[in-house]
From TrEMBL:
Spans traversing the lipid bilayer: 297-317
UniProt domain NEAT: residue ranges: 32-151
Protein name per its UniProtKB record: NEAT domain-containing protein
Signal peptide (residue range): 1-27
Alphabetical list of Pfam families matching this protein: NEAT
Keywords: Cell wall, Membrane, Peptidoglycan-anchor, Secreted, Signal, Transmembrane, Transmembrane helix
Residue spans of biased composition, Acidic residues class: 236-265
Biased composition (Basic and acidic residues): 162-206, 216-235
Membrane topology term: Peptidoglycan-anchor
Region annotation Disordered: where it falls in the sequence: 147-284
Species of the source: Sporosarcina thermotolerans
Subcellular location: Secreted, Cell wall
Length: 323
């Protein structure tokens, strides 16, 4: 009987100790701040801490979105045609996209700080010597969560502050009302009596210095104007002389530019006149050459006509002589 009671007590102690431990394990998943992160990960074999060959076909780091302690992991798989299935914690992963022999998948993880069990089925195709490779593996994914900040702990601190607010309100209201009423009445009477007599004295005393102040203000303004006029005239004269010199220089530069433009325009006119004269001379030469050629042709034709006519006349003379 004693052994049974001791055994039951030991079991009860172990259960009592295990309850806070499990509570801490579940709370660990909710200590991370919400947000989007990039976490490196390693791929281990199922029964040892050795790295699996599957790591060569998975792109690290992965994209992780934390929300309310749960993580949504997005991973890129290389050689997507080899992957027959990919299951995480007994569930098929969700395919986001697939292109260029790469597949992007995502899956949910309750506690990203713990190892994640997964199952894969790989069939190698397109590589000589490995065409018959068809195997299924159990792997483990371990994520590095050191870059995730902890969740802010501010909510439980504000709760007790709300409870203290209604306690202060009823205490202040009844105390303030009777004190104000009793004190105001005698104060008003005493002030009215005191202020009736000295009012005339204050009004008389105020009028006297106002005249002095206005007179002194006018004097100071006139003195300032007189002082300001003397030094300004010298500097203004110097500035006006310098500005006049600058304006004269600019006008001279403009005149020189206009003269240069006029000279260039005259040169262009003369050049155009010379070109037209040259063109007219060339045209006259061409006309003279045409006239001389026409005259020479006319002389040659006359000579030929005269020779032919002389030959004909000579032939006719011979015929007559024979007869």
């Amino acid at each position: 009987m004693k052994k049974k009671t001791l055994f039951s007590m030991v079991i009860a102690l172990l259960l009592a100790l295990s309850i806070p431990i499990t509570g801490q394990m579940h709370a660990a998943g909710t200590t991370y701040a919400d947000g989007d992160y990039t976490l490196p990960f390693s791929v281990l074999k199922a029964n040892s801490n050795e790295e699996s060959a599957t790591v060569d076909y998975m792109v690290s780091p992965a994209k992780v979105k934390m929300q309310n302690g749960k993580a949504t992991v997005t991973v890129t798989l290389n050689n997507s045609s080899w992957w027959q299935y990919f299951k995480v914690q007994g569930k098929d992963v969700q395919v986001v996209s697939e292109a260029n022999d790469k597949r992007i998948v995502k899956f949910d993880v309750e506690d990203i700080s713990q190892t994640v069990n997964a199952k894969i089925h790989i069939i190698v195709t397109g590589i000589p010597g490995l065409e018959g490779y068809d195997n299924k593996y159990d792997i483990r994914l371990v994520f590095n969560t050191s870059s995730i900040p902890p969740a802010p702990v501010e909510k439980p601190v504000t709760q007790p502050a709300k409870e203290t607010k209604p306690e202060t309100k009823p205490e202040t209201k009844p105390e303030a009302k009777p004190e104000v009423k009793n004190e105001v009445k005698p104060v008003q009477k005493s002030t009215e009596q005191k202020t009736e007599k000295p009012v005339e004295k204050k009004e008389v005393s105020k009028n006297e210095p106002t005249v002095n102040k206005t007179e002194t203000a006018n004097k100071t303004e006139t003195e300032k104007d007189k002082k300001s006029e003397k030094p300004l005239t010298k500097e203004d004269e110097v500035d006006s002389e310098e500005s006049d010199d600058v304006l004269k220089d600019e006008e001279d530069e403009l005149l020189t530019v206009e003269e240069e433009l006029e000279e260039s325009a005259d040169e262009l006119k003369e050049a155009s006149i010379e070109e037209t004269a040259q063109e007219e001379a060339v045209a006259d030469e061409v006309v003279v050459e045409k006239d001389s050629s026409n005259k020479s042709l006319f002389i040659v034709l006359v000579v030929i006509f005269a020779v032919v006519a002389g030959g004909i006349a000579f032939a006719v003379m011979k015929k007559r002589a024979r007869k």
